[in-house]
Amino acid sequence: MTQHSDIVQVEHRGSVAIVTMNYPERRNAFSLNMRLALLETFHRLHHQDDSCRAIVLTGAGGHFCAGGDLSEMTTVSPSLLQMRERISIGVRLFRLLFTGDKPVVAAVEGNCMGAGISLAAACDLAVGSEAAKLACVFVKVGLLPDTGLLWTLPQKVGASKARELMLGAEPFDGIQAGQFGLFNQVVAPGEALEAAVVRAQHLAALPPVTLALLKSSLVRGGDSIEAAWRREVDLNPLTRQTQDHQEAVTAFMEKRQPNFSGN
Questions:
Q1: Do 126 and 242 lie in a common domain?
Q2: Strands of the sheet with 16-21, listed across from one edge
Q3: Which DSSP symbol is given to 25?
Q4: Are 1 and 38 spatial neighbours (Cβ–Cβ below 8 Å)?
Q5: 82-88, long-range: CB within 8 Å, 24+ apart, which pairs?
Q6: Are residues 52 and 91 in the same domain?
Q7: What is d(CA 78, CA 76) in angstroms, rounded to the nearest whole number?
Q8: Which of 22, 100, 159, 160 is the most buried (most CB within 10 A)?
Q9: 52 and 70 part of one domain
Q10: Beta partners for 59?
Q11: Rounded CA gap, 139 and 122, in Å?
């Protein structure tokens, strides 16, 4: 088995960090080692790596993530407390992906099953191959959707389609994922990573503080119209005080590209 230390790899392309799930012998299954390594990696990129302004999440070996590692489920069952801790790791990872300050783009090729869909849906944007194979297979193995999917899938594809996909557990391809709204961009096989990097580079060039506040507002300001306008009233005065706002206005007046500092 791929060890905890090398099951996730990180490559930097300028201000974009490419996070690759590296467990190809099991199609990047969402094992306990994978959960822990992803949690550590995203915590570091979000909170300790100032050079990183956007992140791409992808998988090695032509697949994104085949879902939970079933080989771990055939061994002696952990206690309820141990299972709660394992599930909480996925929840903490989901919160980092979905509510972290830096935008995350999924690059999906091949298999994207179960927890793979959870990871893709937790990203801000997803670019996927038209030949990708997806399914919300949780119910078929007697489990509930995890890693935030009960929240994110209805947000991405609508409540009715999410209910259909989770209850039916029927497979669908990348073209359908684009039609449903799970993929923001559908590309030819083998092109998802580069297309995702392009999107991430665009996001990385935007004002970091404003992006962080926007991500927070999209999560916390959409429950009601009152919550939405309250976020607007509370946060826009802050963004008006940032150096990046002033740089954007100055660059527009000077007809040049802005250079955002994150201040």
A1: no
A2: 8-13, 16-21, 54-59, 104-108, 125-129, 185-187
A3: G
A4: no
A5: 86/32, 86/35, 87/146
A6: yes
A7: 6
A8: 100
A9: yes
A10: 21
A11: 20
Measured at the CA of 42, the angle between CA 36 and CA 46, to 5 degrees, comes to: 150
Instruction: State how far the Cα of 174 lies from the Cα of 228, in Å rounded to an integer.
Output: 32
What's the pTM value of the predicted model, to 2 decimals? 0.90
The helix/strand/coil state of 263 is coil
Domain count, the chain: 2
Q: Tell me, yes or no, whether 237 and 133 share the same domain.
A: no
Q: Give the β-pairing of 16-21 and 54-59.
A: parallel
Confidence of residue 2 (pLDDT cuts 50, 70, 90): very low
Structure confidence by residue, pLDDT tens digits, 29-63:
999 999 999 999 999 999 999 999 999 999 999 99
Strand partners, 55: 17, 104
Q: Do the domain assignments include residue 91? A: yes
Q: Are residues 231 and 214 in contact, defined by beta-carbon separation less than 8 angstroms?
A: no
Pair 151, 61 in one domain = yes
Name 225's Cβ contacts closer than 8 Å, sequence gap at least 6.
none
Domain residues for the domain of 230 are 208-253
